[in-house]
Design a protein that fits this description.
12 strands; 260 residues; six-stranded antiparallel sheet
Amino acid sequence: MQCKRIALLGLMAVTTAWGFSPYENYLLKEKPSRVGLIAAARSGQEAELETALRALATKKPAKVLRRKGITNLSSYKQVFAGKTWFMVYFDYEGESYLQAASDYESVDAVQALSKWVNPHPRAERYGARWLQMEWINYIRASQKKGTPANRFAMVTRIRPEKEQEYRTLHQTVWPGVVDQMVRGNFRNFSVFLVELGDEIYEFFYVEYVGSDSAADGEMNNADPVNQRWWKYTDACQLPLPGASGPWLMMDKIIPGSDAH
């Protein structure tokens, strides 16, 4: 009887939340989701868009965004591929992950950005200004609570012939890499992919919750598992001009807020 009960509980778990990939299983079982949106600024209107994005962190728009299930909002910019690109990141607790971009754009303060935004071509197919990038990896890492000491985003390119290898690596992240993120005081690491023109770009967002970033960075760089991991991942990447190593740091616009 006990064996039958255990088997039944296992079946219930499978039928309640079950998918064919780690990504789908996360969407079925976890909240919040992590969202990365991308758009370019219209030529000559980069400053206006940056100012308007910064205003989203003020009290009234932030309150409206929270009602849409959008929290922990931050945004970043960088110049590449002939344009100034803006990335928006947030945690999303809506019912449908793919509703995140439209919920973001439904806010009046976000709609006001439209005159300064040059949408990604694929966003317009979905009736949007901001494209919701493909979310290919999430690592929770540190479970420390509270406001991060820092949060940042970086960008690089993926070699086309290495795309499948890179995706596979991030569907099977080594446990030692995750462990080192915990030791290094990082949390909520997300990787996003998107095509810009003929190239594939990769963005990541992460939060640092430690108190000595120099010491933690030195420890991470010296870790032998990380070093072996980077040999595989770096070979898949094509750095942008001005990058330090494979990654180019993005300029922070909205620092982010943990208010709910």
